[in-house]
Amino acid sequence: MLEKEAELGRHQSGHNSGVLHSGIYYRPGSSKAKNCVRGYGMMLRFLEEAEIPYEICGKLIVATDERDLPRLATLERRARENGLVGVRRLTRTEELREIEPHVTGREALLVPQAGIVDYRRVVKALHDRVVARGATVLFGRRVESVRETTSAIRVISRGEAFTARFLVGCAGLHSDRLARLADPDLPVRILPFRGEYYKLKAHARGLVRNLIYPVPNPEFPFLGVHFTRTAWGDVDAGPNAVLALKREGYTRTDLDLDDLWEILTWPGFPRMAWRHWREGFAELVRSWVKPRFVEALQKLVPEVRDDDLEPAGAGVRAQACDREGRLLDDFYLRRLPRQLHVCNAPSPAATSSLSIGETVSDEVLAALS
Ligand SMILES: Cc1cc2nc3c(=O)[nH]c(=O)nc-3n(C[C@H](O)[C@H](O)[C@H](O)COP(=O)(O)OP(=O)(O)OC[C@H]3O[C@@H](n4cnc5c(N)ncnc54)[C@H](O)[C@@H]3O)c2cc1C
Fold it and tell me: Is 39 in the pocket of ligand 1 (CB under 6 A)?
């Protein structure tokens, strides 16, 4: 395994919300729905085996205005179709407040399966396990070139050649670049969307017991700013979703001209920008103007105040966009005779990771047999 950084988990897998997603959001039959539900079960078994602490604390998805109610009904139906049991619709304020005493909303869904974990510990445990089973992980090894022949695959990193029968690419924010080394016609481009977090200061942590989410906009593949109690003892607020000007751009001022050029010249980009300019603009304002971010949070918990929140870092999502400007909603694997690239694995891909991994390994074994 070749990793360009000095350690694992430097990017998405180490900079996420730490939620064990239940599978409620995803279209029944989609790869996200199947892999999230299956991956959730596999992840819980793995966490038990590896003795990694986690908590199934449940989540509240809150409808704060009239428009949210039909969307909430859709989620309730999806929960049933995706096989979730025990999801409950709460229709009275008192019922919502029994679960989260400071929340406000018209109605809500209580999703008992949702949980929290530190995925950095998961990454470390997976690393130790594959190494114990004989794998070699080389750090500081960026894959620079890939050549596929009929009998083998040749990968170059730092001037050294590695020959293999098959290549699996899981390069996150660079997954399209890695795939394009051997497949210039790849029909998607990764757009980086930064997700910025605040966290509640210690005196305000009592405003949130567990996980409080808004009802997501079905047209936009992100969940909207929410509250997450983390496995490391904080209560995070966020993340927003702002187009980043650098693939690994963790701050607002990070800029990489090559990355930006690739974004702007992708035919799907102007179409995507046209389709989502309203949400994009609102996210940008929320990023630069803290009171707007706080307003979004106050729709869920009105008592939260500007000075209850302090900055808590950011993560960058790798979101594939096609030539027509659609942000791919589902997971996407690109297959070549001797290669398989995971080219769209945004949230809930941490929850789903073991299931995606099983799909990938089954396909590799089938291709090699
Ligand atoms: C802000 C945020 C919040 C999220 N919240 C959740 C959540 O609560 N629950 C959930 O289930 N999911 C969540 N996700 C999604 C989840 O974290 C990701 O989907 C998942 O971690 C993706 O894993 P990955 O291995 O594909 O990518 P990454 O973890 O980004 O790993 C890709 C690796 O490839 C390496 N690499 C790149 N290019 C090369 C190259 N050329 N050569 C060698 N190595 C290379 C990188 O250095 C990196 O280590 C969230 C994501 C973000 C960003």
Answer: no
Does the beta carbon of 143 sit less than 6 angstroms from any atom of ligand 1? yes
Q: Pairing state of beta strands 59-63 and 138-139? A: unpaired
Residues of the chain with pLDDT under 70: none
Alpha carbons within 13 A on the beta-carbon side of 24: 31
The residue written with tokens 């009171």 in the block is: 291
3-class state of residue 160 by DSSP: strand
CA of 333 to the centre of ligand 1 (A): 15
| CA distance linking residue 23 with residue 31, whole number of Å | 11
Residue type, 247: R
Residue nearest to atom 14 of ligand 1 (CA): 347
| Ligand 1 centroid to residue 14 C-alpha, Å | 7
Q: Is the minimum distance from the CB of 105 to ligand 1 under 6 angstroms?
A: no
Ligand 1 pocket, 239 CB below 6 A? yes
**Phi-psi bin for 336: left (phi > 0), alpha (psi -120 to 50), beta?**
beta
Tokens of residue 211, six digits: 């996980």
pTM over 0.90, yes/no: yes
**d(C-alpha 211, C-alpha 71), whole Å:** 19
Q: For residue 203, give both structure tokens.
A: 């005196």
Q: For ligand 1, is residue 348 a contact (CB within 6 Å)? A: yes
Rg (CA), the chain: 21
Does ligand 1 lie within 6 Å of residue 172's CB atom? Answer: yes
b/e per residue, 168-182, with b = 16+ CB within 10 A? Answer: bbbbbbbbbbbbbbb
**292 token code pair:** 């707007």
Q: How many CB atoms are located within 10 Å of the residue 264 CB?
A: 10
